[in-house]
Write a structure and sequence with these properties.
Shape: rod-shaped
Bound molecules: ligand C2E, calcium ion
Oligomer: single chain
Number of strands: 21
Radius of gyration: 66 Å
Largest sheet: 8 strands, mixed, barrel
Length: 889
């Protein structure tokens, strides 16, 4: 099939092809007859009806109405052509044909309006005005040249006038409808253009016909019929073309703005009336008031249209601004570091901003539609749920929790939530989520610092106490037993003093790391301060387990720490305390372990002791005793007794040692071996020592006055380590000598070797200060400590008091002890020191010491410590027995 043939197969092509062929024959002459013209008219009505049936558009009835209008029109034509034959005379005006002719207009108009209504269901004021402007513009022309002549013609009957006017009026109304159809927006297609063309053809032909009638130039079957045939063909084509369905399709909201084409039409038609007036004025034609009215109406319509345009423009601008603002807002949300998300009431995420990629490593698509709580750390879920539940409508609040990153880690976040459920645009909870990992890390670091020791990174006392408290709570609930182990390093002070603090720190760090290795996972180690450490053993089976740990700890600390090639001993003294029934608090347990540790220290280095309630009683007793001692010192409750020191060769008392005595109100006499260390711990020894020194010197002066002898009776006074450290010691001694007027050579100051060994350099300095005063110095309890004679040589010492332990064995069966004592006596002689044998308890010892050549001795076998009165009596006795010696002086 050729292209032309294929085209002709389509009704909308075939129909006009045939119709135009027939019309050409009609107009050219061969087929020029009324019936042919009528058939052409009828064919159009058939085409319209067929098109409506075929294409089944919305509002098919409208098309049938149009077809009916054409049928009526053709009927009018048939009547007009056959009028002479039917009625026997020429066609009058008006006639029976005119109502049929006129009927096409309402049919066309109603049909078209119905289609328009389907097309534009909303009322469109702007297009209506535009259509009116066009109609009035043409109406003015039509009135001037087609209607006014009839209206002003007084020879015509009313019916003739009305009928004549009816045609142009109908044409104008149809024109308004056609304009409305052409100017409304939306897809239209060929069909509507054909329809518009059909209407233009009809209107133009009608107008020319009307004008021709007025000027007497119309002939039936003439060229003008071509106009009507065109109308028929175009209308038929419009209905047959498939795009006819589009006519009654709903069109989008018409754009109220003026297009260039519409503006041109608008301007042209609105200029018709004023233009006409100008033309008439130039041609000197009579004034036509209708034109002025039309010009006024046009002016008002243009105004109304303009105001609408301005409003539309404003609305348009506002709309555009809002769209731009929303776009900017969206961009802001997209690029913000905070993740903005919206939560539905069912907990699902409906919107997530792209920054989720940065925070959680997940795309917004991966999160949208998912349950938010699925991403919250399980431990935080309850907290988050509660937080959201408390958020009332319109409320905001923030919470901190952890969210899961796609890489499997947890991120600390802070979320600001605003409840906008029920709020039109959002309708959900808006979440502003921010990464606070860095801040959290800092907080954790600060918290760690607050609860850990900076040097060893072990928990500090506060954290340890807390852990013990928790363990005690578990003990009360589940009965799991626990122990607190208290450790104090022996001789740590020596390490610090002799090697410096850096070395001390290194030792502490080493101890900490060894401790960590000794404990199980459930235990904890802590540094309580200084050289004190503690262990919490949680969930132990029994006491034996804790003791095993204590032994392991001691063993672990036995190997010395090596610093710069020097070995530092770090043995600990360990105290262990168990919970009794869980009713005690952490502080109590720590104190108990501490007490046990003190007991362990007394037992010797590197040992442990388990706390017993008796220790507590003892500790409390010691505490009371301290208070009582303080009172005694203030009230001169501590007195002195004197033990004679005898020249072993001649049996004479050459000196006395002052020994402190305290009789407690309730407990009776308290041994200096007990209260002197107490006085040392509390610092009471300083005032007590000062008072006793003065008292001893005063008493020595009294002894010397009542029993003068040559050399004068000497007095020995004991000094403690603490007194030796005091810078005022030399001054105090000097003042005591001056005040009591005894010769410095009469005073002997006794110091134990351990007191001198605490700080050797300081001791040497102090001793030299004292020696400069002229007093004698004695080393007490020699041989009981570790010091060698080598050391002793460095001290400016005059007298060596040999410890009782050597004297006890001097007459015994152990040859070594005998030899050792003999060696000490010999050595003292070599070093220029006078030896004094302490604690001579029997005659055998005395005899042996005499044999060994020990010049001086002291002991219960000779004299026990005695009161000043007894000493005075003894001294008087001695002077009487040996007056020669006294007289010789
Ligand atoms: P010390 O300086 O070695 O004093 C001698 C101690 O031995 C005295 O004990 C004395 O009573 C005791 N004693 C004497 N002869 C014998 C004996 O034959 N056998 C036995 N078993 N013991 C004997 P005391 O008075 O109990 O004093 C004990 C320690 O207390 C003294 O030992 C001394 O270190 C200290 N002390 C006493 N008074 C003072 C004082 O006023 N100042 C200071 N700093 N310490 C003092
Ligand atoms: Ca002594
Ligand atoms: Ca002694």
């Amino acid at each position: 099939m050729s292209r032309a043939a294929r085209a002709l197969a389509r009704p909308w092509v075939a129909y006009p092809a045939i119709a135009i062929a027939v019309a050409t024959l009609y107009l050219a002459g061969p087929l020029n007859s009324g019936p042919v013209f009528n058939v052409l008219g009828a064919s159009s009505a058939v085409a319209v009806a067929v098109g409506a049936r075929r294409h089944r558009p919305r509002g098919r009835a409208a098309w049938y109405l149009i077809a009916l209008g054409q049928v009526l029109f053709v009927t009018g034509d048939v009547l007009a052509y056959n009028y002479p034959r039917l009625f026997g005379h020429e066609l009058p005006f008006p006639s029976i044909a005119d109502p049929f002719y006129l009927a096409i207009y309402p049919c066309l108009m109603v049909g078209l309006l119905a289609l328009l209504r389907l097309r534009h269901p909303l009322r469109d004021r702007a297009t209506l005005i535009d259509a009116l402007v066009v109609a009035i513009g043409f109406g003015t022309l039509s009135w001037t040249y087609l209607m006014a002549p009839y209206a002003h013609d007084s020879t015509l009957t009313v019916l003739t006038k009305l009928t004549s006017l009816a045609y142009p009026v109908m044409d104008l109304l149809l024109l308004a409808v056609a304009a409305r159809l052409v100017m409304g927006g939306g897809r239209r297609g060929l069909s509507s253009q054909l329809l518009a063309a059909a209407l233009v053809a009809l209107l133009a032909t009608d107008s020319i016909y009307g004008w021709a009638l007025l000027h007497g130039g119309y002939e039936t079957g003439g060229l003008l019929d071509g106009g009507w045939i065109l109308f028929y063909v175009l209308a038929g084509m419009a209905a047959l073309h498939p795009s006819m369905r589009l006519l009654s399709e709903r069109a989008p909201e018409p754009d109220a703005r003026l297009t260039r084409r519409r503006l041109a039409l608008f301007a042209a038609t609105s200029l018709v009336a004023p233009g006409l007036q100008l033309v008439r004025a130039v041609l000197d034609q009579p004034r036509e008031p209708v034109i002025s009215v039309a010009a006024g109406v046009l002016f008002l319509l243009v105004l109304a249209r303009m105001s609408g345009l301005v409003r539309a423009q404003e609305a348009h601008t506002e709309n555009e601004l809002r769209q731009r603002f929303e776009a900017r807002l969206a961009a802001l949300v997209r690029h913000a570091t905070d993740v903005v998300s919206i939560l539905e009431t069912d907990g699902r995420l409906t919107y997530v901003s792209p920054s989720a990629g940065r925070l959680l490593g997940r795309s917004p698509e991966a999160l949208s539609g998912r349950q938010w709580l699925d991403f919250v750390h399980p431990d935080d879920a309850a907290h988050v749920r509660g937080f959201l539940a408390r958020l009332d409508h319109g409320d905001s609040g923030s919470a901190e929790f952890r969210l899961g990153h796609a890489d499997g880690t947890w991120r600390d976040v802070e979320t600001l939530a605003t409840n906008l459920v029920g709020d039109g645009t959002v309708d959900g909870v808006v979440l502003n989520t921010r990464d606070v990992s860095e801040r959290k890390a800092l907080e954790r670091r600060l918290a760690h610092q607050a609860f850990h020791d900076a040097l060893t990174n072990l928990p500090n006392r506060a954290l340890f106490r807390d852990r013990v408290e928790q363990a005690l709570a578990r003990r009360r609930r589940h009965g799991t037993r626990l122990a607190v182990v208290f450790l104090d390093l022996d001789d740590f002070k020596t390490v610090n003093d002799s090697l410096g603090h850096a070395a001390g720190d290194a030792v502490l760090q080493e101890v900490a790391s060894r401790l960590r290795e000794c404990i199980r996972g459930s235990d904890s180690a802590a540094r309580l301060g200084g050289d004190e450490f503690a262990l919490l053993l949680d969930g132990i089976e029994g006491e034996l387990e804790a003791i095993t740990v204590a032994e392991r700890v001691i063993e672990a600390l036995v190997p010395p720490v090596v610093l710069d090639g020097r070995e530092c001993l770090t043995t600990p003294s360990v105290g262990i305390a168990f919970d009794a029934d869980g009713s005690e608090d952490a502080e109590e347990l720590l104190r108990n372990a501490d007490l046990a540790m003190y007991l362990a220290k007394d037992q010797g280095k590197g040992s442990y002791a388990v706390f017993e309630p008796a220790m507590h009683t003892a500790a409390v007793g010691r505490l009371e005793l301290k208070a009582d001692l303080k009172r005694a010192v203030q009230n001169d409750g501590v007195s002195l007794v004197y033990q004679p020191i005898v020249d072993l060769e001649r049996g004479e008392i050459i000196a006395v040692e002052a020994l402190a005595r305290w009789v407690h109100d309730e407990r009776g006499p308290v041994s200096p071996a007990e209260f002197i260390p107490l006085a040392e711990q509390t610092g009471l020894i300083v005032p007590l020592g000062r008072a006793l020194l003065r008292e001893a010197c005063r008493q020595a002066a009294a002894f010397q006055a009542t029993c003068p002898r040559e050399p004068a009776l000497a007095i020995s006074v004991n000094l403690s380590a603490r007194q030796l450290q005091s810078p005022e010691l030399a001054d105090e001694v000097r003042m005591a000598l001056e005040d009591t007027q005894i010769a410095p050579s009469s005073l002997v100051l006794e110091l134990t070797e351990s007191a001198m060994m605490e700080d050797v350099e300081l001791a040497i300095r102090r001793l030299n200060e004292l020696r400069d005063l002229g007093v004698s110095l004695a080393i007490d309890d020699f041989g009981s400590g570790y010091s060698s004679l080598n050391y002793v040589r460095r001290f400016p010492i005059d007298i060596l008091k040999i410890d009782r332990s050597f004297i006890q064995g001097v007459a015994g069966s152990v040859a070594e002890t005998q030899a050792l004592t003999a060696a000490i006596i010999d050595l003292a002689g070599i070093l220029g020191l006078r030896p004094v044998a302490e604690g001579i308890e029997n005659a055998a010892q005395l005899t042996r010491l005499r044999e060994l050549g020990c010049p001086l001795g002291q002991g219960f076998h000779l004299y026990t410590p005695l009161s000043a009165t007894r000493i005075t009596a003894l001294l008087r006795d001695q002077a009487q027995r040996a007056p020669s010696a006294a007289a010789a002086a």
